[in-house]
Design goal:
heterodimer, A: 264 residues, alpha/beta, Rossmann fold, six-stranded mixed β-sheet, 12 strands, 32% helix, 27% strand, B: 337 residues, mainly alpha, ABC transporter involved in vitamin B12 uptake, BtuC, 14 helices, globular, transmembrane helix (chain B), ABC_transptr_permease_BtuC (chain B), Iron complex transport system permease protein (chain B)
Chain lengths: 264, 337
């Protein structure tokens, strides 16, 4: 079932194994992220989705294997060079007490700062574009603590956009959002992919959202990739049962025409 | 105003806070040099400061009060900046060199040198520093092995501090009376009979370390966002944390070597600035000024409150700091209820 992508991607892993302490979380993963696509990683809790994302962004050092970014092994870049090519929005991001939106988003420009250099026109343009893309421009003087969950999540994405990386990884960006805000955020991400020429990778929990928005799915279980491909190819009742142990029927989503998983 | 809308700019409240603190330090300078048991007239004070005063005023102002005041400023600034770095890297308002065992550890080091090894002078200072560094390493080491961060690391610190405090008490009960007298000073910091050489040491140390702290302090802005995001934004996180911790420990060591352990300045000063300015991005200058002001004010009270008896300033900051800690905890609990 494994589909081996033969074209060279900007970002791919080669027999990557990742540990957390002495426990192996990801085993021998070779995966290529399609350029300018929206890739979604799915799988049951604890299957290693977030760890794979952290491994792809060099936050976890590989115990074996390598991650390649733009033709070079990722560990051969400096931290700053990686930060100019690949952005990551982790789940653990926290806003310092009392910080305002404009200030938080402008911290996304850190990878471009040199010692003693001041703010540039380029920085100004990038922050403005990030705020506009996420519709957070009118929030710049608000304290982040006072925002709603949906607004706050858009602000975090603005920070990652201000980083202006061609590749952007997001760890469960829709968690803690209500359904309307989840859809709003996913539409925003799809827009970014289509207009911004970006490569997006996200971990999502909701299968049907993943089917609707992703053009490439990576399905993981027990630290391995079970199958990958487009939603239409791989979302079948037998695959879902293998992945989640859940019996279901798969119908066509009446709105988007993508697969819709309905548990039995 | 710059043409940029989003350029990082200093918080106006922070600027105002810095100005008031600076004015406060200047007022305190005047209050320390005048008043008290020997209150020089304005003309005598001016004559002394201009270099042609009478010998008595010269002695009291230039040799006794001025170095002590300047040392208090330097010690306070060093402790406050150290505390600010601790709190912002740990993301916890209770983190400080006091609570990770550095302060009580330095007292243990001094007591061991004085009472067990029977040494004195600079050896005691060295012992104090060694004790502080060792206990800080012990706490961070245990926390690292146990993978404890933030609040749990502070728990480890409290446990080690309690052990060391018991050791200190034991050493004191075994000491001869004369030794115990000298040893006591290492339990509570004091600025009594502080010489110019010590004042210059602490001021020189600050002149060296505070600019480094200010430069490294930029990294705190990213570390505050969480380690993963900081790393994703291109900050070498582990290196930055170690470098910051090292500067913070060096600043605390400087203060302790000058006047012994003066508690709670490191804990309270950054928090006070944060509360006054409603921002976490307080930089280095404001906490330094706040620490300087608090320490110099506490020392002035320590000198004058029960004059001619001199209260060790560390006792006073300990008492005031205890009250402040209760207030801090109470207001945090109220918020979480």
């Amino acid at each position: 079932m494994n589909i081996h992508v033969s074209y060279p991607s900007r970002l791919y892993s080669d027999k990557l194994s990742l540990d957390c302490g002495s426990t192996r979380i990801c085993h021998d993963i070779s995966v290529a992220i399609p350029d300018r696509g929206f890739t979604v990683i799915i799988g049951p809790n604890g299957c290693g989705k977030s760890t794979l994302l952290r491994g792809l962004s060099r936050l976890v050092r590989p115990s074996a294997g390598k991650v390649h970014l733009d033709g070079k092994v990722i560990s051969d870049y400096s931290t700053r060079e990686v930060a100019q090519r690949l952005g990551l929005l982790p789940q653990s991001a926290q806003a310092p007490e009392g910080i305002r939106v404009g200030e938080l988003v402008s911290r996304g420009r850190f990878p471009y700062r040199r010692a003693f250099s001041t703010w540039s026109d380029e920085d100004e343009r990038a922050v403005l574009a990030a705020l506009q893309a996420t519709s957070t421009l009118e929030l710049i003087d608000r304290e982040v603590d006072t925002l709603s969950g949906g607004q706050r999540q858009r602000v975090w994405i603005a920070l990652a956009l201000a980083q202006e990386t061609p590749v952007l990884l997001l760890d469960e960006p829709t968690t803690f959002l209500d359904i309307a805000h989840q859809i709003e955020l996913l539409n925003l991400l799809r827009n970014l992919k289509e207009t911004g020429n970006r490569t997006l990778v996200a971990v999502l929990h909701d299968l049907n959202h993943a089917c609707r928005y992703a053009d490439h799915l990576i399905a993981m279980r027990d630290g391995r990739i079970l199958f990958e491909g487009s939603p239409a190819e791989i979302i079948t009742p037998s695959n879902i049962e293998a992945l989640f142990g859940l019996r279901c029927v798969v119908i066509s989503d009446p709105v988007s025409g993508t697969p819709l998983v309905v548990p039995r | 105003m710059s043409k940029f809308r989003f350029a990082p700019h200093a918080n106006p409240l922070l600027k105002r806070c810095q100005l008031y603190l600076l004015l406060g330090c200047m007022a305190l300078c005047l209050a320390t040099l005048t008043g008290g048991q020997y209150d020089p007239s304005a003309s005598r004070l001016l004559a002394t400061l201009l270099g042609h005063g009478d010998p008595l005023t010269n002695l009291i102002i230039l040799d006794l009060r001025l170095p002590r005041f300047l040392a208090a400023l330097g010690i306070g600034a060093a402790l406050a900046v150290s505390g600010s770095i601790f709190q912002r890297t740990a993301g916890n308002p209770l983190a400080s060199p006091d609570l990770v065992g550095f302060t009580v550890g330095s007292a243990s080091g001094a007591l061991v040198t004085l009472l067990l090894l029977q040494l004195s002078g600079n050896a005691v200072i060295l012992g104090a520093l060694l004790g502080g560094v060792l206990s800080a390493l012990l706490v961070t080491g245990i926390a690292h092995v146990a993978q404890a961060r933030g609040e749990r690391m502070i728990m480890v610190g409290i446990a080690i501090a309690a052990l060391l405090a018991a050791l200190n008490e034991y050493l004191l009960t075994r000491a001869e009376l004369d030794d115990a007298q000298e040893a006591r000073l290492w339990l509570f910091g004091s600025l009594d009979s502080l010489s110019w050489s010590k004042a210059l040491m602490v001021l020189g140390g600050c002149a060296l370390l505070l600019p480094i702290a200010a430069q490294l302090g930029q990294r705190l802005r990213l570390l505050e966002l969480g380690n993963d995001l900081a790393e994703a934004l291109g900050l070498p996180v582990a290196y930055s944390q170690y470098a910051l911790l090292l500067v913070a420990l060096a600043l605390t060591a400087l203060a302790i070597a000058t006047a012994g352990p003066i508690g709670f300045i490191a804990l309270a000063a950054p928090q006070l600035v944060k509360r006054l300015t409603h921002t976490s991005d307080i930089g280095i200058v404001a906490p330094a000024l706040m620490g300087a002001l608090l320490t110099a004010a506490a020392d002035l009270l320590a000198q004058r409150l029960l004059a001619p008896f001199q209260i060790p300033v560390g006792l006073l900051t300990g008492a005031l700091g205890g009250l402040y800690l209760i207030y801090l905890l109470a207001s945090q609990w109220r918020r979480t209820l």
